[in-house]
Predict the structure.
Amino acid sequence: MPRRPSYRLPKIPEMTIRRLSVYTRCLLQLEEDGVKTVSSQELADRFTLNSAQVRKDLAYFGEFGVRGIGYYVSGLKAELQRILGLDREWAVALVGFGNLGSALFHYRGFGRQGFRIAAIFDDDPAKVGREVDSTPVFPSRDLGREVKARGIQIAIVAVPAEAAQAVTDQLVAAGIRAVLNFAPARLKTPKDVRLKNVDLSIELETLSFYLAKGAR
Amino acid sequence: MPRRPSYRLPKIPEMTIRRLSVYTRCLLQLEEDGVKTVSSQELADRFTLNSAQVRKDLAYFGEFGVRGIGYYVSGLKAELQRILGLDREWAVALVGFGNLGSALFHYRGFGRQGFRIAAIFDDDPAKVGREVDSTPVFPSRDLGREVKARGIQIAIVAVPAEAAQAVTDQLVAAGIRAVLNFAPARLKTPKDVRLKNVDLSIELETLSFYLAKGAR
């Protein structure tokens, strides 16, 4: 048992959360294939997961398995979606509509998981005032107003590094609760605003690690 | 001890590899700030890491700490870069030059870590034959030839989902050794070709998890 004051819930590792997302995708796939129940071992075998890890991750949230049966695919999927907050729609602000912002806007995975980009912010006069697939593009000075009016809680930052902190400060002032940052900049947010930095070169580095290892 | 046949080296968790990338960035930062030595605890405090985790991750690769001193910042950084294969340049193919491909091409982090996009492939006649910042754009039929001629070992796939497997098959046939896939598609590669899928919605889901938790 972790040695923590008993009034705190156990801290759930972020990697567990990421894996819940992966499990949800696997369960969706099984559901599509008409599979009704699955054991942690079958899940592990089919999707190259670790069955002990699956059980440990799920144990943070409750007892989902049924002895002799395993997990009910649809039931577990719905539970995980609820835990991940995917049983509702989240209005998202996209700040920065350059190449990356545009690619993120059209990224199909977001909508599929209930993330709806409700407003785009960009200061390029050629973009402001337009609509992209019915989503309006506002100048960043309208950020506070639109974030509040549209009930936006999550923002994606896809502006150049040098603009990222200023934009984030505006988002925080507007009452945003979580920021997904793609700008290669170290951002500061208050403690109650969750910040997640996406560093795309880390993905390449896991590959070069294995290639370099093979060459050693 | 893991129960494995003794002739196999311990399998290093991918999360350890990802964290080595993070540690490398922290050490670069410390080096810039003129810090010469650092303990795992100081490293953890400054960059919100877990000091026991730092020690455990590094222990896979050797004894880096010096009793009473900690780690030599520059030395450890150089070691980690070597382990991650960042002590050399990797020629990378970028397949797909739409919004996402273009954003990835201009992503500054890649070049900084030694990943050089040596060739772009796209079948759009308006793009083929052009150069982007001195990098040539080829039609995908030239993929085999150019990958070999340019010594490319890593490919980034940024094409639409429906084109991703065909492109990957071509890359594999051309002798590529690792694929970083951004297309929302399940790809198949032979065992000796490393495949890494980037699912950008997982990043958003870790945020919605915390927001949903706060609301429960």
Summary: The radius of gyration of chain A is 20 Å.
